[in-house]
Amino acid sequence: MSSHADLVQRPSTSCPSWCVVRHGANVGEEDWLHMGAPVAMPGGVSARICMSVDPTTLDIDGPHIVTADGEWSAARVRELGRSLIALAESLDRLASPPTPIDV
After folding, report:
1. pTM score, whole prediction
2. Is the separation of the CB atoms in 51 and 74 below 8 Å?
């Protein structure tokens, strides 16, 4: 996990370690955007870490997880992950052969 100091750096001098954007190719707000590598999910959807830092004010928006459906906070992603793991564990229990009952 990145530290807060790692997440908050001036885009003009360096990027967070997870940023894969080639800065300088865009002007203005587009160049303030830090994006992580995409993570493929089912259904052709991808998710990425995203954060912007205003180089003048150092105001930070993020980091968030972004998908085609919008922005997700870290807490929301963790909650979704826990729910998916619980569903998978339930499925594993249902798929396991029943234990014979001694009579």
Report:
1. 0.62
2. no
CA angle 66, 76, 88 (to 5 degrees): 105
CB 11 within 8 A of CB 54: no
Integer CA distances (angstroms), 7 to 13, 19, 82, 84, in order: 13, 9, 25, 28
Can you give the pLDDT at residue 102? 63
Q: Where are the alpha helices (DSSP H) in the chain?
A: 4-7, 29-32, 74-95
pLDDT tens string 58-81: 888 889 999 888 899 989 999 989
CB-CB neighbours of 65 under 10 Å: 19
Between residues 39 and 15, the one the model is more confident about = 39
Tokens of 42: 């089912």
pLDDT band for 7, please (50, 70, 90 cuts).
very low
Non-local CB neighbours of 15 within 8 Å, separated by 6+ positions: 9, 21, 23, 34
